[in-house]
Write a structure and sequence with these properties.
It is a single chain. By secondary structure, this protein is of the alpha+beta class. It folds into 2 domains: about 70 residues, Double Stranded RNA Binding Domain; about 55 residues, Orthogonal Bundle (434 Repressor (Amino-terminal Domain)). The chain contains 5 helices and 8 strands; from the N terminus they run βββαβααααββββ. The strands form 3 sheets. Strands 3-2-1-4 form a 4-stranded antiparallel sheet, covered by helices on one side. It has a two-stranded antiparallel sheet with strand order 5-6. Strand 7 and strand 8 form a beta hairpin. Helix 3 packs across helix 5. The longest helix has 18 residues. The chain is elongated and about 55 Å long.
């Protein structure tokens, strides 16, 4: 899921504005990443709307706005939460009604919408209650974006502390105890 951001220059700053999300904007100085700042601003804005039980807008199909357009990717777990909220709104169901329909408590459903780490089984159950189904796809990352254990592939780091008594790699590649 991607939202378009209009990128314009305002003096020595780059400004990112989201036409679909009123009031959502950010800026960076030259040399800073507008992509990272835009993603952080967008996700904060969407989280804020979900946290107040509002229905955030869907991303527009047209890439409108002045200036250059940057498509900003939404974190997959946040995208799931948005899809659930939109589907519940379209079905005109409260959390309590949907929870009863799928055999959960309202609190469990609220946690799911608030950012829990759902299992596919739970998502499938809620999706069925909304007349939907879950579809999972694995898409290739753009070159240079592949990560493993939170680091770029090939950049494996070992972190241990002296007090943990953990293992640390030796110069020969075998682990040794501290």
């Amino acid at each position: 899921m991607q939202y378009p951001a209009a990128i314009t220059r305002e003096g020595k700053y780059l400004l990112a504005e989201f036409p679909d999300c009123p009031g959502c904007q950010t800026f960076v100085a030259d040399g800073e990443s507008i992509e990272e700042a835009a993603q952080e601003a967008l996700e904060g804005w969407l989280e804020s709307n979900l946290g107040r039980d509002l229905v955030p807008p869907h991303p527009s199909k047209t890439r409108r706005g002045r200036g250059e357009v940057l498509l900003v990717q939404v974190d997959p777990l946040l995208a799931i939460r948005l899809d659930l909220r939109w589907a519940r709104d379209e079905a005109d169901l409260t959390q309590s009604h949907l929870a009863r329909r799928v055999g959960m408590t309202q609190q469990q459903l609220a946690r799911l919408e608030a950012g829990g780490n759902p299992t596919l089984g739970t998502l499938s159950r809620v999706a069925e209650g909304l007349g939907r189904r879950v579809v999972v796809t694995l898409e290739k990352q753009p070159e240079g974006k592949v990560k493993y254990n939170g680091h770029r592939r090939g950049d494996v780091r070992h972190r241990t502390s002296k007090s943990s008594g953990g293992e640390q790699p030796s110069s020969k590649g075998k682990a040794r105890r501290r």
